[in-house]
Amino acid sequence: MASHRKSRTPGTRVAGIRTPALATAALTSVALLSQTATAAPSAPSADGKPSLEEVEKKVDDLYRQAESATEKYNAAKEKTAKQRKQVDTLLDDVAKRTQKLNEARAELGSFAAAQYRTGAGVPDTATFLLADTPQDIFDQRQVMDRMTGRQKEAVDDYVTQQSETMKKRQEATESLQTLTETQGDLKTAKATVQKKLTDARELMSKLTAEEKARLAAIERKKQEEAAREAAELARQQAERQKAQEEAAAQQDSGTSDGTSGSSGSATTPSTSTDSSYATKAEKALAFARAQIGKPYVWGATGPGSYDCSGLTQAAWKAAGVTLPRTTYDQVNAGTTVPVSQAQPGDLVFFYDDVTHVGIYIGNGMMIHAPKPGTYVREESIYYDGDSSIHSVVRPA
């Protein structure tokens, strides 16, 4: 997939750690924050222990990798469900065809028995000599001709049923093999997620109170910058909206001056489309807001918890729009628009590998399920920097 992400400038940004534990550390370490908020980046210690910035980046990378593995898990899980349904259908079909094959085989057996009883295999000369009258010969030949036609149909039916049954059995065998491989992918993705999360927690557990406080200060600074960028986007969008309204008012004024009132009141197709989208988006956002505070759980689709794509899928489902399960597919489920033209309800995707998504609510903000250890919340779309935004998609 072609990336729309802006290139990063080395050294201009520190990846974020966004966990409730850090917020708590910030509140309980006010004195430390005042001393360390402007501290210079720490260099690696003499004993080889990584610097605080290196740990912070490593933890952030692990969470990103876990989220990527989560989307792969979601894709494998969805694929497994579809393949299981396909296999079950094929097995049912094989069972029905086997029954028909057995019925065709039984019919062939009845014809063979009939031939034995009627002496159908006796030569014509012997049949003539053993017949009581010429009429008996004629009647017997008529019966055998009809039986021969039915026998041919029975044989053809048996051959057809046997061929189709073998074909379906082969399809079922191949589908079962594919299902087994997909289940293996599912297991691998699950193990990868768990490993990344465990590694991240272990790194965080080794930080001292002072280090956690410094990370909280970094996070607070990042949030302030994200809020500033969101406010700037909101200002730009407000100016753009105002300009559009003024242009529309001038157009309406010109139309009413130069044409009859009936033609000036006509609704344009674009206006109708925007209104329809806004109605659906309002329903999607109402659902998303009702989920705020629920925990992020990888692979979850509600109602008690969500991962990022599970939340956006459920929100738009509430508006009557069906989205695919994963971010990889959701990013292709609509029309891509510039960030500057984002509207409430649009999906905002992040990172080159498209592993995170949120639902835009306006003013540079979104609702999303951030990552393990956090809860569904409102946040600036610049929460991880401007360069982290991959694209904006309008799904309906």
Describe this structure in words.
The structure is a single chain. The chain is of the alpha+beta class and about 400 residues long. It is elongated, with a radius of gyration of 35 Å. β2 (about 345-350) and β3 form a beta hairpin. It is about 65% helix and about 5% strand. α1 (about 20-30) crosses α6, α3 (about 50-120) runs antiparallel to α5 (about 135-205) and α8 (about 270-290) packs across α9. Strands 1-6-2-3-4-5 form a 6-stranded antiparallel sheet. The longest helix has about 70 residues, at about 135-205.
Structure annotation, total helices:
10
Provide the low-confidence segments as ranges.
1-43, 260-269
Mean pLDDT over the residues: 76
Q: What structural class do helix, strand and pairing data support?
A: alpha+beta
Strand order of the largest sheet: 1-6-2-3-4-5
Q: Count every beta strand, where a strand is a DSSP E run of 2 or more residues.
A: 6
Net shape: elongated
Approximate strand percentage: 5-15%
Distance between the termini: 21 Å
Helix content: 55-70%
Give me the strand/helix succession. Answer: HHHHHHHHHHEEEEEE
- Gyration radius, in Å: 35 Å
| Major β-sheet profile | 6 strands, antiparallel
